[in-house]
Specification:
Length: 386
Amino acid sequence: MLAERNVDVPASEIRKIFNKIIGRTDVFDMTVGIPDFDTPEHIKEAAKKALDDGFTRYTHNAGYIDVREALAQKLKRDNNIEANPETELICTAGGMGALVLANMVIINPREEVIYPDPGFVSHYAHIKLAGGVPVPVQLKKEHRFGFLAEDIESKITSKTKMIVLNSPNNPTGGVISNMELKRIAELCIEKDLYVIADEAYEKFRYVEEDPLFIGSLPGMKERTVSIFSLSKTYAMTGWRIAVATGSSELIGAMTKLQEHIIAMPTSIAQKAAAAAAIGPQDCISEMLQTFRRRRDLITKGLNDIEGVELEPPGGAFYVFPDVSAYGIKSYDLVHKLLNETKVVTVHGTAFGKYGEGFLRLCYAVSTERINEALSRLDGYLPKLLH
């Protein structure tokens, strides 16, 4: 009796694994991408002040105007994106809220959407929720999991409406080079395609190239919804707050739809977001330095294990090692590791069919936990080869 979309939209395989270990203290959890940092103090203080000052009522459906003005400053400073805070910017309930809204206002039933595979699990789900047809493009190990314009072009048909970009990518840590991003932009203009740019990991980059954002490129503002979540950047995963920007037409449609879904994101989280955007930014560099050290540690440690192959990821805080040498389906290997080593990982196929032969490990955990997990994996995995 339930609607068919309940069948079409799959449950997250990541959450299935995570739910199995809730309450267990004997496991080394490397599943969900939650930074192991506390929200910076100045952000928490802004939230407390908002409570004390009575900011506890409904706001504009796009968010408080002063919050949008602060976030517009951040977009100009960090992303080279000019956004009118009154008409071209919306506060949403995390990046997920923005992703749902963007898909719903752009996609018609049976229109095709190109997205990365392996990729964030909800990209596929949101396309299906909007009635669209997901068209995966394989992110390849030999290209360090970067999206290539030529691979995208090969998937474009008369029914293609949009492309979803996520760089740095979850789960692979792959980064789209600036040259490829410009080619993708040219392709979108030529083929008249929309873009959702999921910039959740905008700050966590380890490549030498300065970051470039597709929404800042000529001719792309009117066809791009750029989404900047505060969850990872400021260790605010539980606050559920993000900002999306694009043309007034796109943002206006998203604002109208948000009114009928959640009205607006939490007023207190909005005020905290403003403090995050215009307050001290040293917390980001501290996290980035820590994650870089952990990336180097886990990359070397995994490569030292017989049978594992891994190039250093270009961004985010995940590694996506190739474990195909063991000849075991990634789903089965995850459960073997859980049962035999108590190290909890996620199978590559949780992120799409092209994830087979890989595992995802989140290194947003302490150095001590990474070292212990590596020791346990090294004590078990090579046995599968002999």
